[in-house]
Design goal:
By secondary structure, this protein is mainly alpha-helical. The protein has 6 helices and 2 strands, in the order H-H-H-H-H-E-E-H. It has one domain. Residues 5-20 have low confidence and may be disordered.
């Protein structure tokens, strides 16, 4: 028996099903309590559609996420989940580009910096961030 759904509609439903399985949550830590900001960021990242100039669109998203959360581990954790979601939606090329940009951001934050003559300690990712990055890489 032939399916009554057109091929495009079937493809759309498959992509929608995969996207709906995508979860973006703050890191599982007892000390992370900014649930209002993380909920807003999660909703924005889940709806994120990076197209056109991926470099500038994703960089704006990364910068905005860091400002909203004010917690490097939570931001990296949730941004790596967004990359995994993009990959699951089938946009692996964009996801690879997003990963490259986020890796660059992580390296910049790992470098020691001077502010007002004082050295700011470099960023050290948590184990959850490392796991989220690994999941994003594996999804590519």
């Amino acid at each position: 028996m032939k399916s009554k759904l057109p091929l495009k509609m079937t493809a759309f439903l498959c992509v929608a099903a995969v996207a709906s399985c995508c979860k973006i949550t703050p890191p599982p830590a007892r000390d992370y309590r900014n649930t209002e900001a993380s909920g807003k960021v999660a909703a924005e990242l889940k709806e994120l559609n990076v197209s056109g100039n991926v470099e500038s669109a994703w960089k704006r998203t990364v910068d905005k996420t860091f400002v909203q959360l004010n917690d490097d581990n939570a931001a990296f954790y949730m941004l790596f989940q967004a990359i995994e979601c993009a990959s699951k939606r089938g946009d692996k090329e964009t996801a690879r580009h997003m990963l490259t940009i986020l890796d660059r951001e992580m390296e910049e934050r790992r470098a020691p910096k001077l502010r007002s003559g004082r050295e700011i300690p470099p960023y050290q990712p948590s184990l959850q961030v490392d796991k989220a990055r690994a999941q994003a890489v594996l999804s590519l």
